[in-house]
Write a structure and sequence with these properties.
This protein has eight helices and twelve strands. With 230 residues, it is an alpha/beta fold. Helix 2 packs parallel to helix 3 and helix 7 crosses helix 8. The two termini are 18 Å apart.
């Protein structure tokens, strides 16, 4: 799977040039020209690296860098026309990994992107163990962090919704009755109100399915129960 990069840059010609060179090198690239939108995506989606301009409409690059670094360790390369050392010091002080001054050669940007991604991947591998993650057709379930993404967009899940989804996804193609799911997820010996299972399945489908009336992940096996399809 190719690395995913977010470019937050309001100069369209520069953003497009960066995107073209990075895509030629095999990266998947998204562009945001507004600081507020870029910040939301940087915080709520999973990118492997962020290329960040400083002067933007909405939130500026310094604020984006500060907020992203408080939440994530994603590598950040600042790309700016600001040449003053004070701006470089401030940007790096807020947690940016690199600072490039415009104009620059696109090939140099690609080289720096590759270097920072390689360094970050080495740090991750040498540090804490990797999270336990299930990935199936655009659905990503991080069992360690208890987080769920659908096509790169994080979705909020209650405790039981997450437990139920994870249980089904960890046992693909196995048909479970409502009673079995109730016992496994709610940890009760008695059958209890198995309608709870139906309600939770409906809520999960609304979050992960493109069309919840025609589910692609959690199938209803009429008269039996539910199955997670892979």
């Amino acid at each position: 799977m190719s690395n995913r990069i977010l470019i937050i840059e309001d100069e369209e010609s520069i953003a497009d040039l960066e995107k073209d060179y990075l895509e030629l090198s095999g990266f998947e690239v998204d562009i945001e020209s507004n600081g507020d939108r870029g910040l939301r995506r940087a915080l709520n989606e999973e990118f492997d690296l962020i290329i960040l301009d400083l002067m933007l409409p909405g939130a500026d690059g310094f604020e984006i860098c500060r907020q992203v670094r408080e939440a994530k360790n994603t590598p950040i390369i600042i790309v700016s026309a600001k040449k003053d050392d004070i701006d470089k010091i401030r940007g790096l002080g807020l947690g940016a990994d690199d600072y490039m001054t415009k104009p620059f050669s696109p090939s140099e940007l690609v080289a720096r992107v590759k270097a920072h991604l390689s360094r970050y991947e080495r740090l991750i591998k040498s540090g804490t163990p990797e999270n336990d993650v299930i990935e199936i057709r655009g659905l990503k379930i991080d069992k360690t962090a208890r987080r769920v993404w659908v096509n790169g967009e994080e979705k909020p899940f209650t405790t039981k919704e997450f437990d139920l989804l994870t249980f089904l996804a960890a046992n693909p193609n196995h048909v479970f009755s409502k009673e079995e799911l109730f016992r496994n997820i709610w940890d009760l010996n008695s059958v209890g109100d198995i309608a709870t299972v139906t309600v939770h399945i409906k809520k999960i489908r609304e979050k992960i399915e493109t069309d919840s009336s025609n589910p692609q992940y959690i199938e209803t096996i009429w008269g039996v129960g539910y199955r997670f399809r892979i």
